[in-house]
């Protein structure tokens, strides 16, 4: 494995770890500010790793060419779905922007972050997990596919449990108002 492949792959694992820790942790650690601080760092590092992953892909695989990245996205999409479409690359950019905006919001303070409107939180995380599921389970194979599947099922279970606790009135529930 050459340097470019190593860096591009390594950043994916950091992305998944940061995403899993942040998304699961905030659902569970609503009132624990010390834990929320650690989770905020994991969420932020995961987001930064996502940007690094994109930069590595552009540098090592696409020679900084948007058209090359679009064509490769179209090729992979056609391979999986039968539809030759590279527009998924823009969905990936939206994913990155959404995550970065969420991380920035979290740095405004734990209270501002955990008290966001529940509908906004659900919409954000539904979008993020949809992309993570597609990026790992639908479009990848091998170990990454299985890790992605376990991650998505695990997050679904954590968030479902947190929402159930919230409905019961448990004040430690991490799902927002």
Explain what this protein looks like in three dimensions.
By secondary structure, the chain is mainly alpha-helical. It has one domain (about 5-165). The chain has 7 helices and no strands. The protein is globular. The model has no long low-confidence stretch (mean pLDDT about 90).
Secondary structure layout:
Layout: H1 3-28, H2 33-61, H3 66-81, H4 88-107, H5 110-114, H6 118-138, H7 142-167
Q: Distance between the terminal alpha carbons, to the nearest Å? A: 47 Å
Low-confidence stretches: none
Structural class: mainly alpha
Secondary structure: helix percent:
over 70%
Which properties best describe this structure?
177 residues, mainly alpha, 7 helices, globular
Short account of what is shown:
The protein has helices at residues 3-28, 33-61, 66-81, 88-107, 110-114, 118-138, 142-167. The chain has 177 residues and is an all-alpha fold.
């Amino acid at each position: 494995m050459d340097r470019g492949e190593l860096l591009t792959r390594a950043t994916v694992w950091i992305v998944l770890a940061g995403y899993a820790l942040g998304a699961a942790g905030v659902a569970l650690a609503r009132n624990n500010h010390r834990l929320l601080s650690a989770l905020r760092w994991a969420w932020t590092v995961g987001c930064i790793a996502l940007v690094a992953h994109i930069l590595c892909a552009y540098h090592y695989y696409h020679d900084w060419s948007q058209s090359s990245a679009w064509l490769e996205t179209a090729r992979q999409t056609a391979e999986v779905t039968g539809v030759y479409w590279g527009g998924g690359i823009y969905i990936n950019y939206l994913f990155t922007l959404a995550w970065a905006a969420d991380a920035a919001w979290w740095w405004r303070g734990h209270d501002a972050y955990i008290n966001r409107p529940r509908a906004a939180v659900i919409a954000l995380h539904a979008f993020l997990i949809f992309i993570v599921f597609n990026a790992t389970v639908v479009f990848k194979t091998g170990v990454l596919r299985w890790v992605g599947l376990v991650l998505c099922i695990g997050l679904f279970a954590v968030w479902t449990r947190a929402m159930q606790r919230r409905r019961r009135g448990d004040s430690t529930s991490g799902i927002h108002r």
